[in-house]
Structures are given as C-alpha cells and as structure tokens.
C-alpha cells in the first residue's frame, strides 16, 4: 500500500491539505470533481494574504458540490465540508474533533502554518489521517508530513514535476519517505471516484 | 490512541501543578494550543516527558518563569484588523461621545499595541481627554513592555498601513518618536491609560465600563472558561455598554448571547440590551 497508488478512502477519517503558491488553480481542479457524498472532511491550510479570502470561498463554492467554508473556533469537524484555516490564525484540532484557533507566533514565517495543523491532526487522527502536500514555493508542511507518517497516517505529495511551484512537495519528499507521489490529475481521479473500489 | 491519552492526562496533571504552585489557572484553556506550548517548552529545555516538568518547575526558577512566558500569548499588533478600528470610530464613538466621561476596559492587552491604537482613535475623535482606558493582562513582563510603549521600528511600516486602513486622520508618525531602532509612543497617548495586572481566569469584575475590548483571548479558552469570562464582562458593563471581541470569536451558544445585540456583526461588536 505504501508505494502503490492504491488506497481505500474509507480506511480514513480525515484529510489535511497544505498548499501555497499555485493553490487557487490546484484546489479548484481537485475540489470541483469531488462528489457530494465524499465521506471525509477535508481541512486545508493555504498560505494566503490576510485580507483576501472571501473571493476564494465564493469561487470554490460555485464549483464544488461540498460545502467550502472557513473553520470556526469550537466547530465540530464533519464530513461533507471543506474547511480552510482563517487567514492570520493557526488552525488546531482538539481531541474531541473540534477546531481551535490561535494567533501564536508565525511558524515557517507563516500563519496559518501547515506544520501546525498537520501535527495536531496527526496526534488526533493517528493512522486514519491522509496528509497531502500540493504546489507551493516554501517548505512549510514537510515537518508536518513527517509527523503524519510517524503516527501511521498516509502521506501524499503532488509530483513536483506536475506542480506549478515544485518547492513545497519537493521539500516534503526530501524530508519524508512519502507514501504516494502522483499528479494532480491522478489524485483527482482517486478522490472523485472513491466508491469505485 | 494510548500515547495521546497518556499525554492528555500528563498535560492535566502539569496544569494542576502550575495552578497549585503559582495560582495561574490554565486548566480550562483549549487543550490543543496549550499542548503546543508545552511541546515548545520541552524542546527549549530538552525535556523528554511532560511528567519530568513538574520536578523541574520546583527546582529551576528560570524554567518556571519560562512556563508563564510561554503560556501567555503576547502576539499582537497596532490596529490589528483595521476594519474593526474603523467600525469603532464610525459606529461606537458617536455613542461614547454622549457620556461626560468614558471608561474602557481592554482585557488581555499583552504588550499594549491595541490599547495605544484605541487611544489614537479616541484622540482623533476628540474623546481621549475624558476617557480612562484600563488595559489589563496577567503577564507582568508584557505589561512592563506595554507601559514603556517602545516598539521595533521594523513593525512601524505595517502599523502605518493599518492605521491608514483604519481611517487615520493624521500622519502615523505624529504618535511616536523614532530613536535608534525603536519607536517610542508619544507620552500624550499614555496619559489616560492605566496598565494593570488582572487575570481573567481567577480575578473578579472591573465595574461600570462603557466599552470592553477583549480580542483573540477567548479562542484560547474552552467553553466553560469562555462562558465565565463573558459573564464577567457582562457584569462589568453599564446598561447599553459595548463589548468587542476578536473577529473569529463569537457569543453564539454562550449564556450571555441573549443579553446582547450585535452592532457590527462582521467586526464582532455587541451592545448590552
């Protein structure tokens, strides 16, 4: 399972995604094909300027069958939703699977930081977590992927050759033995047809 | 599952020990972020297990000082969320101006940037001379920095932009003096601010406020503690007083929800009924 592009979505409880530069197009492509009955909640950290997130939600909600929203503090995480970390806040997950926010110091020059979410998510969901790193121009998320792996979760990176900005997936690949490396199109195919298997 | 559960219990025991020794009560803080901070401490002091922290706390004073520093979040900035300050200026100032004197409580002021931001707004709107701002925090180190009002010149560029976005009427440089690499807040802004130690978790109400600001503090509390603190604010406000919380915080599902009307939903400014 570790090297084959083969995994069963229903073995998992949540997906976390880290993405930075180039994320708008990548996420639109990935999310717009997800069916309404997609069984896992998806939690995203995208590095984005602190005053511009409204348009992203409007755009994604128009193109996506699942509900796309900003994560609210103390909100319970549920399937059928795609949650984004609010700009300028770290997004954390509590043991009872609710969100917490924090304005602690930036990590990897970022707030929200992918590493912060991934680490928290790994500690809560353990081996029932899928961590995904997509296009981006910095190395936030690599450490988070290491911790997801350490906790038995599935790690997926976009093939750097396929990414608009290869640095972020490449940094994760350099740091961790990534479970699956694939193109965005392949990932989209896996997710959109999750009940084919 | 095992490791997480065990760590969870160890966190609780450590927080209990801090409370017993110092009276600082973090037991009802949201666990995920308190755990992050404990892990930061572990890294800083090369401590493997949380359980090793309790004896260390009793033996090593520099360690115990670090605990309090690490647990108190002092990340803040001037005119944080400029739109919020614009809303205070446009929607709240006209009401405040009807009072002969104004009492404002800024709870959780950390290093003071937002207290000075508020002072600037009130000064430009000609209210500052009849205002007292009580700016409180439980972290004495942060309070000292707040009283000094000396900030890094590196930050000033961002502060200036935010000041302008908040509808600033003058030049931001009117409010500080640059010296070496620091910006020193002008004394005229300090005049009516009282910085004082107050712990929202364990201290009592503050009395007869016209406006209470407490932004990005409640996100660190669990539901029980959030409710306690909101009730503290409710009892500290005058009839028709204003309450402003962080832009990602809300009164929803709290026991005071029905006692307040939203004045500006987006910027989370409420008014007591």
Q: How do the helices and strands line up, and which of them pair or pack?
A:
The complex is a heterodimer of chains A (197) and B (273).
Chain A: E1 14-19, H1 23-32, E2 42-46, H2 54-63, E3 67-70, E4 81-84, E5 90-93, E6 99-102, H3 114-125, E7 129-133, H4 142-150, E8 154-158, H5 167-175, E9 180-182, H6 184-192
Chain B: H1 2-22, H2 31-44, H3 53-59, H4 61-71, H5 82-96, E1 102-107, H6 113-124, E2 131-137, H7 140-148, E3 150-152, H8 153-165, E4 176-179, E5 182-185, H9 187-190, E6 193-197, E7 209-214, H10 223-236, E8 237-245, E9 260-264, E10 269-272
Parallel strand pairs in B: 1-2, 1-7, 2-6, 7-8
Antiparallel strand pairs in B: 3-5, 4-5, 8-10, 9-10
Helix pairs in contact in B: 2-4, 3-4, 5-6
Short description:
The complex is a heterodimer of chains A (197) and B (273). Chain A contains six helices and nine strands. Chain A is of the alpha/beta class.
Q: What coarse outline of chain B follows from CA principal-axis ratios?
A: globular
What is the beta-strand fraction of chain A? 15-25%
**Distance between the terminal alpha carbons of chain A, to the nearest Å?**
14 Å
Q: What is the fourth-level CATH superfamily of chain A?
A: Methylesterase CheB, C-terminal domain
The CATH topology name of the largest domain in chain B reads: Rossmann fold
The largest sheet of chain A has its strands arranged as 3-4-2-1-7-8-9
Shape of chain A: globular
How many independent structural domains of chain A?
A: 1
What oligomeric state do the depicted chains represent? heterodimer
Give the tally of β-strands of chain A. 9
Which secondary-structure class do the elements of chain B indicate? alpha/beta
Strand content of chain B: 15-25%
CATH class descriptor of the largest domain in chain B: Alpha Beta
Q: How many structural units, i.e. domains of chain B?
A: 2
CATH superfamily of the largest domain in chain B: Vaccinia Virus protein VP39
At the third CATH level, what is the topology name of chain A?
A: Rossmann fold
Quantity of strands of chain B, as a count: 10
Give the low-pLDDT segments of chain A. Answer: none
Which strand order do you get reading across the main beta sheet of chain B? 6-2-1-7-8-10-9
Work out the helix count of chain B.
10
């Amino acid at each position: 399972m570790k090297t084959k592009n083969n995994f069963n979505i229903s073995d998992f409880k949540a997906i976390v995604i880290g993405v930075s530069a180039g994320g708008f197009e990548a996420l639109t492509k990935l999310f717009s094909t997800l069916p309404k009955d997609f069984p896992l909640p998806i939690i995203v950290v995208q590095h984005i300027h602190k005053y511009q997130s409204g348009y992203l939600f409007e755009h994604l909600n128009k193109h996506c069958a699942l509900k796309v929203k900003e994560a609210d503090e103390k909100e319970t995480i549920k399937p059928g939703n795609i949650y984004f970390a609010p700009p300028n806040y770290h997004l954390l997950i509590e043991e009872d699977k609710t969100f917490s926010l924090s304005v602690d110091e930036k990590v990897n020059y970022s707030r929200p930081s992918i590493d912060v979410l991934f680490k928290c998510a790994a500690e809560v969901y353990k081996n029932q977590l899928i961590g995904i790193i997509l296009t981006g121009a910095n190395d936030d998320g690599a450490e988070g992927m290491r911790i997801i792996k350490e906790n038995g979760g599935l790690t997926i990176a976009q093939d750097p050759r396929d990414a608009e900005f290869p640095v972020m997936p490449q940094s994760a690949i350099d740091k961790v033995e990534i479970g699956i490396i694939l193109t965005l199109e392949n990932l989209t195919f896996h997710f959109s047809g999750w009940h084919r298997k | 599952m095992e490791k997480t559960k065990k760590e969870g219990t160890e966190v609780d025991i450590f927080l209990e020990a801090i409370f017993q020794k110092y009276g600082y009560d973090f037991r009802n803080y949201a666990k995920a972020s308190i755990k992050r901070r404990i892990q930061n401490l572990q890294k800083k002091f090369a401590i493997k297990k949380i359980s090793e922290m309790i004896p260390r706390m009793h033996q090593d004073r520099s360690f115990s000082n670090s605990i309090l520093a690490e647990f108190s979040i002092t990340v803040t900035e001037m005119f944080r969320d400029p739109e919020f300050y614009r809303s205070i200026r446009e929607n709240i100032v006209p009401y405040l101006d009807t009072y002969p004197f104004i009492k404002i409580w800024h709870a959780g002021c950390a290093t003071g940037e937002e207290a000075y931001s508020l002072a600037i707004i009130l000064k430009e709107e000609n209210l500052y001379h009849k205002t007292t701002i009580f700016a409180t925090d439980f972290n004495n180190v942060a309070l000292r920095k707040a009283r000094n009002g000396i900030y890094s010149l590196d930050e000033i560029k961002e502060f200036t932009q935010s000041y302008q976005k908040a509808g600033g009427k003058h030049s931001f440089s009117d409010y500080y003096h640059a010296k070496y690499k620091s910006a020193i807040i002008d004394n005229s802004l300090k005049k009516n601010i009282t910085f004082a130690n107050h712990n929202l978790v364990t201290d009592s109400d503050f009395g007869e406020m016209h406006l209470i600001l407490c932004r990005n503090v409640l996100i660190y509390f669990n539901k029980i503690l959030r409710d306690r603190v909101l009730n503290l604010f409710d009892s500290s406000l005058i009839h028709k007083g204003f309450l402003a919380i962080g832009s990602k915080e809300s009164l929803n599902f709290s026991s005071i929800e029905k006692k307040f009307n939203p004045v500006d939903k987006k910027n989370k400014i409420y008014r007591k009924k």
